[in-house]
């Protein structure tokens, strides 16, 4: 109600226009505050990508890598990883990770393929995934792979990263020196036939000495290897 001087009388409600302006100011303040909060969260989380979901002592993970680090070729190829909390020696990081579907042994990740390719295609496929055809450096690693191959449903041969450009001159794909005392050939192998210049793990062999030299154009499964990622 207006008095004679044109003022609003005490206790009388303000006009609708003034109430609308007050409500609008409150909403603008809330929107501004939320925007500031979102910006701060983005800054705090900007150094990480992904989500870690622990399950007991293990975790399925969409990996998060510090933005200051250059991701490896393997990290660039895969978005889903499986990690465990075993802390590797010589590092202060708490998780060791391999791509989902790969198998870990010590500090390496291994992929056992279901499809078949010739040796050159196998090496190219492993390289395209940021890995290489497996290079076997110890009896412990050979035993692990022997056990994994035995678990494969069809028990068929697997290409590994050992080949010969000339008869008897064996070499690993990563230039690791070939050591005949740390080789695991089947009895009577290698056969030293010029055309048999690539190597497979022979799945039906009952012992860990299961390498066999084969022709490079034959189609077999493959084992790819890459260094495990620690975070």
Low-confidence stretches: 1-14, 16-21, 39-57
Total beta strand runs: 13
Query: In oligomeric terms, what are we looking at?
Result: single chain
Described by strand count, sense and barrel closure, the largest sheet is: 8 strands, mixed
Specify the structural class: alpha+beta
Q: TL;DR of this structure?
A:
This protein is α+β, with helices and mostly antiparallel strands and 231 residues long. The protein has helices at residues 16-45, 73-77, 119-128, 139-151, and strands at residues 51-55, 58-62, 81-84, 96-99, 103-105, 108-112, 132-133, 158-164, 170-172, 198-201, 211-214, 221-227, 229-230. 25% of the residues are buried.
Architecture overview:
With 231 residues, the protein is α+β, with helices and mostly antiparallel strands. Helices cover 25% and strands 24% of the residues. It contains 4 helices and 13 strands. The protein has helices at 16-45, 73-77, 119-128, 139-151; strands spanning 51-55, 58-62, 81-84, 96-99, 103-105, 108-112, 132-133, 158-164, 170-172, 198-201, 211-214, 221-227, 229-230. The strands form 2 sheets. Strands 5, 6, 7, 8, 9, 10, 11 and 12 form an 8-stranded mixed β-sheet that branches. The chain has a 5-stranded antiparallel β-sheet with strand order 1-2-3-4-13, with no helix packed on it. Residues 1-14, 16-21 and 39-57 have low confidence and may be disordered.
């Amino acid at each position: 109600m207006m008095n004679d001087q044109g003022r609003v009388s005490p206790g009388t409600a303000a006009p609708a226009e003034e109430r609308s302006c007050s409500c609008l100011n409150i909403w603008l303040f809330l929107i501004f505050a939320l925007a500031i909060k979102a910006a701060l969260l983005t800054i705090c989380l900007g150094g990480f990508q992904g989500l870690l979901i622990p399950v007991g002592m293990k975790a399925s993970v969409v990996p998060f890598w510090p933005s200051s680090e250059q991701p490896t070729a393997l990290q660039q190829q895969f978005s889903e990883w499986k990690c465990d909390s075993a802390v590797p020696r010589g590092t202060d990081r708490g998780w060791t990770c391999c791509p989902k579907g790969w198998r870990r042994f010590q500090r390496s990740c291994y992929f056992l393929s279901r499809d078949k390719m010739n040796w050159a295609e196998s090496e190219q496929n492993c390289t395209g995934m940021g890995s290489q055809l497996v290079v076997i450096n110890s009896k412990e690693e050979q035993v692990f792979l022997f056990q994994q191959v035995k678990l494969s449903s069809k028990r068929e041969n697997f290409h590994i990263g050992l080949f010969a450009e000339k008869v008897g001159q064996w070499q690993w794909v990563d230039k690791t020196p070939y050591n005949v005392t740390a080789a695991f050939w089947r009895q009577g192998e290698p056969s030293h036939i010029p055309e048999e210049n690539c190597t497979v793990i022979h799945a039906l062999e009952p012992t860990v000495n299961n390498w066999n030299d084969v022709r490079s154009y034959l189609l077999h499964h493959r084992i790819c290897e890459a260094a495990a990622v620690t975070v």
